[in-house]
Specification:
Elements: H1 6-20, H2 28-31, E1 41-45, E2 48-54, E3 66-70, E4 73-75, E5 77-79, E6 85-87, H3 98-109
Antiparallel strand pairs: 1-2, 2-3, 3-4, 5-6
Length: 120
């Protein structure tokens, strides 16, 4: 039996999350009824202002041309091959939309400020 690597575990988790996605109301974006196609959003979530918008000519190729901000500080996001999104704050918890990535980051920050992430 092959050794279970982190990559295989994450791949299996992504497959299960993708398969359960349409039937699960557990994700914040789906539970709130937000089925945006990665359009612009600007809202207050748990007392924090989260914003997202398509970024024209984005220098951050992992974000697939999308910028997300928490209280005005950019939250670096990345789109996975399966269409899910992760951020530097909630890297091991893929979510269906950039809005859900912003909400997950706010949940994980637990009131702490988001610090700027140095771009490479």
């Amino acid at each position: 039996m092959p050794e279970l690597s982190r990559r295989r575990a994450l791949t299996a988790a992504a497959v299960l999350a993708t398969a359960a996605g349409p039937w699960s109301a557990g994700t914040p974006a789906m539970a709130a009824g937000h089925h945006d196609a990665h359009g612009t959003f600007d809202e207050v979530y748990k007392g924090r202002r989260i914003q997202g918008r398509p970024a024209a000519g984005a220098g951050h190729h992992h974000g697939a041309g999308y910028a997300v901000f928490v209280d005005g500080v950019e939250l670096h996001v990345m789109r996975n091959a399966d269409g899910t999104w992760i951020s530097v704050v909630s890297h091991y918890d893929p979510v269906p939309t950039p809005r859900a990535a912003a909400r997950a980051a706010v949940d994980d920050l637990q009131g702490a400020p988001l610090l700027p992430f140095p771009a490479n």
